[in-house]
Inverse folding.
C-alpha cells in the first residue's frame, strides 16, 4: 500500500448535553481568566514536558472544557510546574494554577 | 403554481461578450476542461469570449491559507478588472469556484465599504497605473453552461441515457461551497436549491441523484488539504459523501469546483488503497467529471481531447454507457502522437475480477 502520510479520520461526535460539565465549571470559577484563552497553543509550544513526552496542555485544557476527562488527570502528572507556559501566555492566564486546579477538580475521575 | 419567492433564487447570467478568468489549478487537474469551455462558448455557441493571456491567478489559495492578506487579493482582483476594462468587456466568466467566491466577496466588500474600494483603486493606480470599471455581471463558467444548456442539448450527439437499458443515467451533482454558500444570491437556486448542475443533467436527459449528504462539503477545505497531517479530515468528508451516494448507484459525479472534482476523484483511489473500499458498480470507482467535460461528452467531443485520461477513476464504463466512440489505444497519446506514459494499475480501476 502506498504511504500517504495520513489516514482516514474517523467520525467523532461530542455531546455537550450528556457530558458532565460540573468539574469544568468549577475550574472556571477557580481560574476565571481561563475564559479569555484564545487557544493559541503558546503554552504547548514552550512546554518542557511537552518536548520530552506527548503531553499537550492545550489539548488537555480543551478536553476539560468540553467535559471529556478521560486520561487528563494522568496526563497532568507529566507537568513539572516550571511555569514557562505562564510567561508566554498572551492572556496572562495563570496556567500553573490551571494545572493544579484541574488535578484538584478531577480527583474523582 | 409558481412561487413568487422562487424569484429570489434566480440569477442573471450575461448572454454574450465574456471576459474569461482562468483557474490556476484546473489546467493541472483537468487539462482539457477550460479549452473545452472556450470551444463550446466560442465556436459551438458563437459567443464572444476573450481569453486574456495577461490576467493572473486570483491568489485565492494563498488567501484561504493565510499567506495573502485581504488587501493584497483585493488589489489583484482590481487588476483583473482593469485588464477586463482595457479589453472592453463587462461580463466576467470565472472558471474556478474559489476565484468566483473571491470576486463576489471583493465586490460585496466594496459595496459595503466604499472607502476600501477607494483605497484599493489608489493602491492599484500607484502600483500599475491602471484604472477599472466594476463588472456588470460576474458569472461562474458553470452558470454560463447552465444558461446555454438548452442550446447545448439541441446540439447533443449523446444524451445522458444508458444505451444498454434505455434508462436515464444517474448523476450525482456536487456544488462547490464557495459557489453559493458565501453569497446565496450569487448562485442559481441559492444555497438551498442549487440547480446549476442539476439543470444541466436534466436538460441533457439524465436523472439527478438526491442522497442524504448531497450538500456536504467534499472536504478540500484548504487547511484540511494543504497540511499533510490534516488530510485525514479531508478524505473523511469525501468518504461520508461516497457512503451516502453509493446505495443510489450513480453512473457519474459532476462537480463545478476544481477542488471538489479533484478530490472526489483522487480520494476514491486513496480510500481504495487504504481500506479496499470502492463505491461504483463492479467494484470500480465512480467516474468524476467537470461540467465542461460533461458538456463536451454530450456534444460528442473526443474524450481524450477533453483530458479524461488524466482522471484517477477510469471513465470508460461511463463512455460505454453513453455510446461514445473512442479509441482505447489513443488514451495516453497526445495530439502529436507522443506517448505520455500510463499510470500503474490501481485497485479503484480493477473492478471485481
Amino acid at each position: 500500500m502506498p504511504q500517504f502520510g495520513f489516514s482516514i479520520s474517523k467520525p467523532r461526535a461530542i455531546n455537550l448535553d450528556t457530558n458532565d460539565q460540573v468539574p469544568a465549571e468549577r475550574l472556571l470559577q477557580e481560574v476565571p481568566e481561563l475564559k479569555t484563552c484564545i487557544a493559541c497553543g503558546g503554552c504547548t509550544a514552550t512546554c518542557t514536558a511537552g518536548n520530552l513526552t506527548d503531553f499537550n496542555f492545550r489539548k488537555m485544557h480543551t478536553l476539560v472544557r468540553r467535559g471529556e476527562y478521560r486520561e487528563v488527570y494522568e496526563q497532568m502528572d507529566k507537568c513539572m510546574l516550571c511555569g514557562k507556559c505562564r510567561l508566554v501566555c498572551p492572556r496572562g492566564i495563570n496556567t500553573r494554577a490551571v494545572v493544579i486546579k484541574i488535578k484538584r477538580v478531577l480527583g474523582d475521575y | 403554481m409558481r412561487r413568487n419567492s422562487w424569484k429570489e433564487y434566480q440569477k442573471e447570467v450575461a448572454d454574450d461578450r465574456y471576459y474569461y478568468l482562468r483557474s490556476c489549478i484546473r489546467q493541472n487537474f483537468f487539462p482539457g476542461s477550460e479549452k473545452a469551455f472556450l470551444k463550446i462558448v466560442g465556436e459551438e455557441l458563437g459567443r464572444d469570449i476573450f481569453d486574456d493571456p495577461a490576467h493572473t491567478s486570483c491568489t485565492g489559495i494563498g488567501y484561504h491559507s493565510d499567506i495573502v492578506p485581504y488587501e493584497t487579493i483585493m488589489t489583484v482582483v482590481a487588476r483583473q478588472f482593469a485588464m477586463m476594462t482595457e479589453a472592453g468587456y463587462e461580463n466576467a466568466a470565472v472558471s474556478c469556484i474559489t476565484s468566483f467566491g473571491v470576486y463576489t466577496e471583493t465586490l460585496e466588500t466594496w459595496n459595503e465599504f466604499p472607502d476600501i474600494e477607494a483605497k484599493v483603486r489608489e493602491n492599484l493606480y500607484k502600483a500599475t497605473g491602471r484604472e477599472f470599471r466594476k463588472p456588470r455581471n460576474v458569472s461562474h463558467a458553470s452558470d454560463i453552461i447552465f444558461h446555454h444548456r438548452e442550446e447545448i442539448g439541441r446540439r447533443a450527439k449523446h444524451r445522458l441515457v444508458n444505451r444498454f437499458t434505455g434508462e436515464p443515467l444517474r448523476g450525482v451533482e456536487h456544488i462547490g461551497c464557495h459557489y453559493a454558500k458565501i453569497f446565496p444570491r450569487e448562485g442559481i437556486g441559492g444555497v438551498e436549491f442549487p440547480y446549476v448542475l442539476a439543470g444541466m443533467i436534466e436538460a441533457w436527459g439524465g436523472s439527478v441523484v438526491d442522497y442524504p449528504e448531497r450538500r456536504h462539503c467534499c472536504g478540500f477545505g484548504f487547511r484540511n488539504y494543504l497540511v499533510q497531517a490534516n488530510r485525514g479530515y479531508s478524505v473523511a468528508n469525501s468518504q461520508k459523501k461516497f457512503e451516502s451516494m453509493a446505495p443510489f448507484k450513480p453512473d457519474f459525479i459532476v462537480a463545478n469546483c476544481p477542488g471538489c472534482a479533484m478530490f472526489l476523484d483522487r480520494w476514491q483511489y486513496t480510500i481504495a488503497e487504504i481500506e479496499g473500499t470502492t463505491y461504483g458498480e463492479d467494484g470500480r470507482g465512480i467516474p468524476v467529471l467537470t461540467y465542461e467535460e460533461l458538456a463536451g461528452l454530450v456534444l460528442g467531443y473526443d474524450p481524450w481531447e477533453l483530458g479524461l485520461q488524466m482522471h484517477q477513476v477510469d471513465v470508460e464504463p461511463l463512455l460505454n454507457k453513453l455510446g461514445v466512440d473512442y479509441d482505447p489505444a489513443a488514451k495516453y497519446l497526445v495530439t502529436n502522437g507522443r506517448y505520455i506514459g500510463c499510470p500503474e494499475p490501481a485497485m479503484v480501476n480493477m473492478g471485481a475480477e
Remarks:
- The interface with chain B takes residues 1-2, 4-11 of chain A (CB under 8 Å).
- The helical segments of chain A are 22-30, 42-46, 48-52, 57-66, 72-76, 84-88, 95-105.
- Chain A has one domain: 22-107.
